[in-house]
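Q: Mind making up any chain with structure tokens?
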Amino acid sequence: QVQLVESGGGLVQAGGSLRLSCAASGNIFSINAMGWYRQAPGKQRESVAGITGSGRTNYSDSVKGRFTISGDNAKNTVYLQMNSLKPEDTAVYYCHFSVNEERAGGLREYDHWGQGTQVIVSS
């Protein structure tokens, strides 16, 4: 069973920085993609940034130029460096992995989510 463990959230003043990490463990054959999502109170979960297994990245317009996603496939870990944080970045941040696992029945793609880490940006 694959498990994801997030770390790095917290309270920061506007303009500050935080770095989130998410490490996956378990029976991972290969990684297709990793990403970060966030959910603010009363809002739907939204995509923040993603990175493919080959290193191609994408960002939401709201964080482009301020956040940087990176991955270490050897460590099964994804990072999110968040700079110039704004109060509107306040949310619970979730990491997501799309991985290939070999289970009974063969090799298939599975999605996994982290437990979420709170980011609060004060004005």
Remarks:
- The first strand starts at residue 3 and ends at 7.
- The radius of gyration is 15 Å.
- Residues 55 and 120 are 28 Å apart (CA to CA).
- The chain is about 0% helix and 60% strand.
